[in-house]
Amino acid sequence: MSGVQDQLEIKFRLTDGSDIGPKSFPAATSVATLKESILAQWPKEKDNCPRTIKDVKLISAGKILENSRTVGECQSPLVDTPGGVTTMHVVVQAPMEKEKKELNQPQKNRCGCVIL
């Protein structure tokens, strides 16, 4: 690979249609590092702000990207054009804490027994 191809221009499309970037990243950058960059650049005025990289899913070419993979490994030759900007979609997962708390609550007895 040449030095130009080792760098990828990536913009991150948020669910409301706004973008973060584009920004240049080396092909060896991990997906987890991309997520950290998104957290650092997240617009302060947005309501649905992720707290950790676990709250963020990145989708490129219809595939959810794994944190351990590199940007170069995730490139799709059919979608990504050399020297172009790659768009990755950002999905923020709803916090599961409230749902977990509700699941951990003891179930109320809804049985009504009649003793004669």
UniProtKB/TrEMBL annotation:
Q: How does it sit in the membrane?
A: Lipid-anchor
Checking Gene3D superfamilies in the record gives:
Phosphatidylinositol 3-kinase Catalytic Subunit, Chain A, domain 1
In terms of superkingdom, the source organism counts as Eukaryota
Describe the location of the UBL3-like ubiquitin domain by residue ranges: 6-114
**Secretion signal span:** none
What InterPro entries does the entry give?
MUB, Ubiquitin-like_domsf, UBL3-like, UBL3-like_ubiquitin_dom
Q: Give Gene Ontology CC terms.
A: plasma membrane
Q: Which Pfam families does the protein's record reference?
A: Rad60-SLD_2 (PF13881)
Compartment(s) of residence: Cell membrane
Record key words, sorted: Cell membrane, Lipoprotein, Membrane, Palmitate
Q: What does this protein do?
A: May serve as docking site to facilitate the association of other proteins to the plasma membrane.
| Name by which UniProt lists this protein | Membrane-anchored ubiquitin-fold protein
- Species for this entry: Rhodamnia argentea
